[in-house]
Design goal:
binds NADP nicotinamide-adenine-dinucleotide phosphate; alpha/beta; two-stranded parallel sheet; Rossmann fold; globular
Length: about 220
């Protein structure tokens, strides 16, 4: 997504917890601006906002992309701790960042990254799936709330893609991210606000019977 935004002549700022990953990205894209931040912390989110307001108050687009996925069963001892981490990162962070960054005068687009699992949970990542369902629901309401301010609210709905989500190797068999990014930037140019591809397109359009059949197949 960074590469595509830069190719379209945008200034891009990214954040993440690992400085070495940020500096690697900066080496690949020399004009990229990076800022270390743990978005699961309310204090760090406030500090990020203050830094943006002081240094990049002309920011136009917020992409709520950071997410974690925990494979776990409710019978496990650390279930609640790991569930809370997912809720902080996947729900509290995008809500808080949106609230904070809406104070910047130039904000015109908010992009929330949800998932095909927003529509059809995978029980092995049950809390993760529920956080994405929450963000899908809230994104619909946010679009409605921001209509009068003419702020475009876009939902990015990936299917499984080959990233490190959930841990290295778990998504190796999934399609490459670039194919998804290519497809969704065409959809953005067409004016679409719910960007789907492959499995997520199917789930987005599925009937309740199709969702139930897919749930049984994926969780069987
Ligand atoms: N890959 C898929 O199959 C898939 C499918 C549907 C939706 N998605 C969604 O796509 C988004 C991106 O995930 P990905 O697939 O690219 O997974 P990934 O390879 O694990 O990347 C997750 C990114 O989020 C950042 N992040 C996580 N927690 C953070 C925190 N507390 N503070 C700041 N940054 C944080 C990570 O950076 P640091 O670790 O350095 O902090 C990393 O850059 C997520 O919202 C995910 O739910 C992915």
């Amino acid at each position: 997504m960074v590469a595509q935004f830069l190719a379209d002549n945008n200034t891009v700022i990214i954040c993440g917890r690992r400085p070495e990953v940020l500096s690697e990205a900066q080496k690949t894209h020399p004009t990229l601006i990076t800022h270390p931040c743990d978005l699961s912390s309310p204090q760090e989110r406030e500090a990020l906002y203050q830094w943006l307001a002081s240094n990049h108050s002309d920011l136009e687009v917020l992409v709520n992309n950071a997410g974690i996925q925990n494979w776990m069963h409710i019978a496990e001892d650390d279930f609640m701790t790991r569930a809370q981490q997912e809720i902080q990162t996947n729900i509290e962070a995008p809500l808080h960042l949106t609230k904070l960054l809406l104070q910047l005068p130039a904000i015109t687009i908010i992009m929330n990254v949800t998932s095909g699992l927003s529509f059809m949970p995978l029980a092995k990542v049950g809390v993760y799936s529920a956080t994405k369902a929450f963000m899908h629901s809230f994104t619909l309401s946010l679009r409605h709330m921001l209509r009068d301010r003419h702020i475009r609210v876009i939902e990015v709905i990936p299917p499984a893609l080959n990233t490190d989500l959930g841990g290295k190797g778990l998504h190796d068999a999934a399609p490459p991210v670039q194919d998804f990014i290519h497809a969704i930037f065409l959809q953005i140019a067409e004016g679409k606000d719910e960007l789907t591809w492959g499995f997520s397109e199917k789930m987005h359009q599925a009937t309740p019977a199709e969702i139930k059949a897919t749930f049984d197949k994926m969780n069987g």
